[in-house]
Amino acid sequence: MSETGVTAGIVVIGDEILSGRTRDINIQQIAEFLAPLGVQVKEARVVSDDQDAIVEAVRAMSERYDYAFTTGGIGPTHDDITADAVAAAFDRTIDIREDARQVLIDWYAKSKTELTEARMRMARIPDGASLIDNPVTGAPGFQLENVFVLAGVPKIARGMLEDVADRIEGGTPVTAISVRIEGAREGDLAARLSKLAEAHPEVAIGSYPWFEEDEQGGLRRGVALVARSTDADALEAVRSEFERFAT
Question: Where would I find the MoaB/Mog domain in this sequence (predicted)?
């Protein structure tokens, strides 16, 4: 565990994300899933369907953080190379494994769907990995050391996370508070926010401008002040200061 608490990194894999054809929401849902467990996502990367890029990213995230998550690239097609890349990242062999094979046999039998040679690729699991249940489409993900390998389709990835929660040794959950100040500009608050951040180093403080159209077609603007911390007392002190900013 790092000095900043329990941490995680995310590697989103897929040319379709980088090309803009597909919008990623897995970073958001993984972060939201981990927050109540007391795990903070500290970094996320998006990499192409390139084995060297995936290997480098997985190694970096695994070494830097308590946990790492990957999404994408574990399907049945030729460009689904994540399992091979994660195996390579840990210098493990990979092949069709009997427990994963049986999961697929049972799943496709229930759905009366042919288990083709291409689909059987999804039973290729690195040596020493433990399976992650997939309640949506059957094909398992896996955990290798501190890396959790999930599907890229958000609904499937979210289902897989349910089998991950009890494997996480979390920390103190981070709580967030937000105060909206209408009519303010970030530049007007910058100096006061800087002093507040120095006074409360245990609290992460951010400011985010917002713009809204009013009923007359005009523009309302303001700043949302956000604070996040595991220290409830410090967070309440910052909330009080935020509210003074609005007066």
Answer: 9-171
